Amino acid sequence: MADIAIENAEDALTFLRTVYQHPKVPLPVRMRAAAIAIEYEKPRLAVTALVAGGNFAELLEQAIERSSRVQAIERSRAQVIEHSPAVEEHPPSELLPKPRRV
Q1: Residues 6 or more apart from 9 whose CB is under 8 A from it?
Q2: What is the DSSP annotation of 17-76?
Q3: For residue 21, which phi and psi values (nearest 5 degrees)?
Q4: In this structure, what are the phi and psi dihedrals at residue 24, rounded to the nearest 5 degrees?
Q5: What is the CB neighbour count within 10 angstroms for residue 19?
Q6: For 53-92, what is each residue's pLDDT tens digit?
Q7: Taking the model in full, what pTM does it have?
Q8: How many whole angstroms separate alpha carbon 55 and alpha carbon 40?
Q9: Whole-number Å distance between alpha carbons of 8 and 15
């Protein structure tokens, strides 16, 4: 790699691009330069929320209040079914396993 001449770059990103695009630089070095450079070439995907009107805490409290009201309405509409299962009494001889025939 001593015989590879890389021109002076105006900044670090340009230098990294030169390194990973140079065909005579060994592949592991090129891959490392590309991995470092990509952080500055491509933006990371991020989630952002746009909150309109009021601050976030107030909006969150209002949403929780609305959710509680909906749950209360659903509980009031729910029908409770009372049921007592029938219990059958069996003599102990019925509960024992039957002997197997050999």
Answers
A1: 15, 18
A2: HHHHH-TTS-HHHHHHHHHHHHHHHSPPP-------SS-HHHHHHHHHHHHHHHHHHHHH
A3: -95, -10
A4: -90, -10
A5: 19
A6: 778 888 888 888 888 887 777 777 777 778 888 888 888 8
A7: 0.42
A8: 33
A9: 8
Residue 16 DSSP class: H
Q: What is the 3-state secondary structure (H, E, C) of 64-100?
A: HHHHHHHHHHHHHHCCCCCCCCCCCCCCHHHHCCCCC
For the chain, the structural domain boundaries read 1-54
Give the separation between CA 10 and CA 44, rounded to whole angstroms. Answer: 25
Q: If you count them, how many residues does the chain have?
A: 102
How far is residue 33's CA from residue 31's CA, in Å, rounded to a whole number? 5
Structure tokens at 53: 């009107």
